[in-house]
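Request: Could I get any protein with tokenized structure?
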Amino acid sequence: MKLTSRTFWPALLLAASPLFASAQTLRVGLAEDPDVLDPTLARTFVGRIVFSALCDKLFDVDEKLDIVPQLATAYEWSGDNKTLTLKLRPNVSFQDGEKFDAAAVKFNLERHKNMPGSNRRGELAPVASVDVVDPMTVKLNLTAPFSPLLAQLADRAGMMVSPKAAQAAGDKFGTHPVCSGPFKFAERVAQDRIVLERYPQYWNNAAIHFDKIIYTPIPDATVRLANLRSGQLDFIERVAPSDMEKIDAEKKLKTAHITEIGYQGLTLNIGKSDKAKATPLGRDPRVREALELSLDRQGLVQVVMDGEAAVGNQWVAPSNSYYAKNMPVPQRDVARAKALLKEAGVPNPSFTLLAATTADAQRLALVIQAMAREAGFDVKIQTTEFATSLNMADKGDFEAYVLAWSGRADPDGNLYSFHGCKQPLNYAGYCDAETDKLLNQSRELREPAERKKVYEQVAARVLKERPIIYLYHRNWLWAYNPKLAGVRNIPDGLLRVDGLKLGS
């Protein structure tokens, strides 16, 4: 088979004295502070926004979610689909001056697979070994055909860090990452800022028009918007849905409404830790079904998202070709919810709902609390900073958790790591041998129609147990300086910095 080649596409209000953005500095307002800046260990969506400027990947996705080249320029599958050969981009260096080559790819993929605490391990599980064919050619050997592999390599599993820097820093690498992207790490002050500076030797430097990027975490959407309006930020992500209509009407800022490929849901601890046994919600699937039936998804979309979302009940939206139509969105049924609770012997169950401090998570938690109360639930809300909430989820230190997933181009990325036994993002602790078998089978199939049949079987099993109650699929809501040109609306919700310019 000939190599398939494709063309690369190109906290509080900030200080009282205004720091207006110049054409050389891009200032971005984030809804949270990212976790560790190590692509092997990282989990947060906002971290991926920073990585899009810091760490190039083997592939990327475009506006249509097609796979496009980045550090890999071409690829070839073997006849049995168990070997993937990549041709690499020449004349690329890491931000410490080290050369990017096939040996570096081998190092990175093995690091993703083997590093303790890796969150990429499940994404690359079928990759058995990596061979260096020549300096610009690398071969990935699989235990079985793995249809999502290219999509995985278009995200953090395909991010390349400097082997020399990673080996020297060990588990402290995330405090001063060294990658191959257009901007290099300069400074981080927790909960305050992340500063990146332009890397002059970047392979695609002609597409980069800023000398510096400053990412500022501002959890309050109102404050983020105020900073944008005042000129102290150039771009903000996750605008409050209630503000979008007014912003659009004023026509003073540019905006974007991008349907996400992820979901908003409730993760329930059904086996992650002893806390799963502490409440009827974790012990009894009838109680979890009652909770779902107490919720009005359309009402949640209207009240929490001001209509800026699509109702859903699975890891992909109903409009997605992989949506399992055999498991449609259930309608709210408070009477049935009460009957299930009575049948379970707990007419008034109580549980604690963990929610991050972000405005959207808090709104959702409050509306869920009110809706569930009508069916007899007593929901207590526990609020904590987002990165802390992820650590709590990792340890199983929760009963229920408001958690959004930003989504991946291939549905496997929304599913496998969350529902496969002992996978790194399986915060619910769900484990079922038959589901694992089906998930692995779906990864081996290349034909979409065959994969969809398997996903229908997965949906029938997972949605019955409800480790996650899927609620809706948000719109990514952006607002930015009207002088900022080159913004690309890609459904993964990440701001690409190549081609961005700030006019006068």
